[in-house]
Design brief:
The protein is mainly β. The chain is built from 2 helices and 20 strands. The protein folds into 2 domains: 163 residues, Immunoglobulin-like (Sandwich); 85 residues, Immunoglobulin-like (Sandwich), CATH 2.60.40. Helix 1 crosses helix 2.
């Protein structure tokens, strides 16, 4: 089976995420904040990639950032403040490229300010890096795409503004102390569901939360009987949706969210709420959006498979 191009998957996700009316076409602007920074060798800094929808509602984005690894070392990529709700391609460094793709099922038309109608740009991701060698280093945005929140996956016009990192001798140290993060990830509600579009109709647990401090690092899942307690050895690293081990006798499922500072939040999905085959249980809108996106991706993959 051939792998479906990311652009096709992204458009499928954008098409499935929302329904609405066609909007006028304007340019969405991708840029860095700060757009220019001066560092000395060995100093560290963080630069965010932002999107300004400029009056449009955007529900899917994709692209890449070129990192000149000969001059700067990428230390981390964080998305805890991102306006992206679901990553189709989690931002990570491959070679010199940080590729990303994600959706905002409800659309993103800017962050409202407390007073007035003005809206501000939203963060997509933040690059944390260390200066290695003197020179003027460009941060270039490549292959960027954005799709309108119109139900038709209409491509939006895009503009990009590159960033610059100037690495010089004896520069003033721009690094600031990061406040200690002692706050766990936010509360969330894991759900046990089954759907033909997810892992051949097997029972899965779906979950998601955010951490406004250091960002979510990973999730862990533990399945235990209702009359048992969770032991340290029960936890397994997991991603949502997670297929349950015992499909015949579904247990209580505990989900642990761990942030980058080691703070933890544990929530539970009880086996009493497990949907049966005849159960037409309604899911929350956010979970339905995720399931619709996954169903669309599976549909396009299967259709391509049958054609080859």
């Amino acid at each position: 089976m051939r792998t479906l191009p990311l652009r096709t998957l992204l458009r499928a996700a954008a098409f499935t995420a929302v329904l609405g009316s066609t909007l006028p076409l304007h340019a969405a602007t991708f840029y860095f904040d700060p757009v220019q920074v001066t560092l000395g060798n060995g100093q560290t800094h963080a630069t965010s990639l932002l999107i300004n929808p400029t009056g449009e509602s955007i529900n899917a984005v994709a692209g890449s950032v070129r990192i000149p690894t000969s001059h700067i070392e990428l230390v981390d990529i964080t998305t805890n403040d991102s306006v992206v709700d679901l990553w189709i391609e989690q931002p990570e460094l491959t070679g010199e490229m940080v590729r990303f793709a994600g959706i905002m099922p409800r659309g993103f038309d800017g962050i409202r300010k407390p007073y007035g109608d003005e809206r501000k740009s939203g963060i997509l991701l933040t690059l944390h890096y260390r200066a290695l060698e003197e020179g003027s280093v460009p941060l270039v945005i490549e292959g960027v795409e954005a799709y309108l929140n119109d139900g038709n996956a209409t491509p939006a016009e895009v503009e990009v503004v590159p960033g610059v990192v100037d690495i010089v001798r004896n520069a003033r140290n721009l690094q600031t102390d990061t406040p200690l993060d002692v706050t766990p990830p936010e509360r969330f509600v894991p759900l046990i569901v089954r759907d033909a579009a997810l892992h051949d109709g097997k029972y899965v647990v779906v979950f998601h939360t955010v951490d406004r401090g250091s960002g979510v690092d990973h999730y862990e899942v533990a399945e235990v009987a209702a009359d048992e307690t969770v032991q340290d050895g029960d936890w397994r690293t997991a991603h949502s949706p997670h297929v349950l081990n015992d499909q015949d006798n579904v247990h209580d499922v505990y989900v642990k969210a761990v942030d980058r500072s080691g703070n933890e939040r544990v929530e539970m999905a009880t086996s009493e709420d497990v949907p049966q085959k005849s159960d037409e249980r309604a899911l929350p809108l956010g979970i339905l959006a995720v399931l619709f996106v996954l169903a669309a991706v599976l549909f396009f993959i299967r259709r391509r498979h049958f054609k080859t």
